[in-house]
## 1
Amino acid sequence: MRELLKETAEVWGFFHNPNIHPLEEFRLRLEAVKKLAELLSIPVKYDEVYRPGEFIKGVRSHTGQDEGVPSFNERCGYCYSSRLEATAKAAKEGGFGVFTSSLLFSKYQDHGAIRAAGVEFARKYGILFLYEDFRLLWQEGREASRSLGLYSQKYCGCVYSRIERYAEKKRKKAGG
């Protein structure tokens, strides 16, 4: 965020995370964004509706899979598209000519897929998508968030990621 604020553009935030589960995780992330917005004096438009059911239904429709855990690429592709479209739409409605995503900060995300979705929705809404590889600032950002006392997530946020994360921890604990 600090890197964007160095530029001369007006920066606004948009909190839209229908993928986050469970409710407590959603609340922790929402409060962290509110705290950061206050600390950096950034206006934010908040979508505070907790609705992981819509996300799960969307993933199932996108992948054609009614049961089990869809692959990382399948579910993440849907997640990137749905969230970036909502962001592009909000940017257009807010009179902004450019949008980007905090997803570009994570070293765990598929930048190619994020970039493709961003460009697709930039075209659809007649605005620009700012692609920047913010992963270069990942460690610095993690340290800064700790020093500010911000909540730091343990997984991407979706129910599928959570299932995989805790299944892996269980396997490691069992020695497998």
## 2
Amino acid sequence: MGCSIAEIAKSIVFVDENNTLVVVLSGDRKVDLRRLCGTVGLNLRMATPEEVYARTGYRVGGVPPFPHRMGVRVIVDRSIERFESVWAAAGDHNSLMRLPTAELVRVSGAEVLDVSK
């Protein structure tokens, strides 16, 4: 696509018994699970591929930053704010979209937090 790994906005799904969070972060970062749990006040774990599909309607590798089923909370890590635009999955593992970072945050209804390392 002609972009750096950092310009890819990856979506990682975390769950507990009742909550589903999609964390969108720069491709060169990893989610700091301890920081994420402390920031949102939940005891989360990374979702299994089966849970990702059941809770979001998307398969691993194609989870977009939006739209999601009701009750899915989206968090955008500040790491992607380094870029004016980013590339993100668009619903399946063969589809990508490029969009302005500010638009990604707006359309997803995301909270912008520091949850990466």
## 3
Amino acid sequence: MPTTPIKVSKFLSNLPLFRELSAGEIERLAQGTRESQVARGQILFQRGDRCEGFHVIVYGQIKLAFNSADGMEKVVEIMGPGHSFGEAVMFMDKPYPVYSQALADTLVLHIAKATVFEEIERDPGFARRMIAGLSRRLHGLISDLEAYTLQSGTQRVIGYLLNAVPDGATGEAPVELRLPASKSVIASRLNLTPEHFSRILHELAEAGLIRVEGRSFSILDVDGLRRYEG
């Protein structure tokens, strides 16, 4: 796992949430921030743990998930560098409703709740930016719920693959992609069983739209994938 020290204040100042803060405000946040090296597979926090702040990913990958009554894991979100999580729980003063696990060696910053609340008292604009970030997260969860309710499994998988395609890509050349996590984790994120996810990938490959090699993908026909109805 990389151990090169980072300049916490510089990293925070480049995050959209903190970009408009003064150097003094950034330094105060940095003083209330601690670094955590989380090895692949390690749990950062468990469901039911007390929330004492929120986290920002510097590098690596984190999944948020919970186990259903029948013991099946449901992945809520997969996040990478620059993503933050835990803000809503921090404001609600509730325990975590999910657990957090590293999917790769990861460095996260934990910004203490007391530090965040002090900055909100000093700067109402900071509070507005926090609310905007939470609103974007809520919009994403509503979009997920809409997809689970109204879209077929095939539509969800196609949408997931197309979201990873660079802007402006067409069917003229293959687009190379790599899944950010295992197929079982991605399947859970899309509210599919691993078997159903694999069947859909096989179906798309049989249609000549994608090629799959482990976690590496080639989208052979972007326009055709957009039009595919199964």
## 4
Amino acid sequence: MIRFLHSKSNVPESDATLLAAYRAGEGVEALGRLYERYVELVYGVCLNYLKTEADAEDAVMAIFEQLMEKAKMHEVQHFRSWLYVLAKNHCLMQLRKPQHEFSEPDFVQFEGVSHLEEEHSEEQEKQLRECIEQLPMQQRSSIELFYFQEKSYQEIAALQKEDLGKIRSFIQNGRRNLKICMEEKVEKLGN
């Protein structure tokens, strides 16, 4: 099961206390501890909707990123219920996204290139490899382990001797950087 952040304190804090600490600017650690309480709930919701463990794990991390923004914008009275709705809505939005579009590459999932015509798939795969090589070392190794060797976040954290939050960050930033790189390559081809 996913462990999000490790608590540094054995003193139980209420959901409202941790949320208030985060909103007061005390850092993401308080929100991480709060999210860790409900990560199994979020994972279960995501697995129910998205059907695969890998997609559910990705969603758990993406939902935390959304939570960092939305927790500051919304007054939350019942965190558990609110988080459940946030997770459900995230999953529904994922299910509504088109899965395979060549016109706007989505390298978040790395589904492979078998759905493309052969000439496009070889070129796209070459461009993807070039973009991966341009990533910073930690992002590159995390992306390769996660997508090409199908390692879990926990396995990558153990292999790289990093905490889970950093691995999540390396993968998310790596995916974003890959998307930007690929968009630039597509744009150059169009000119």
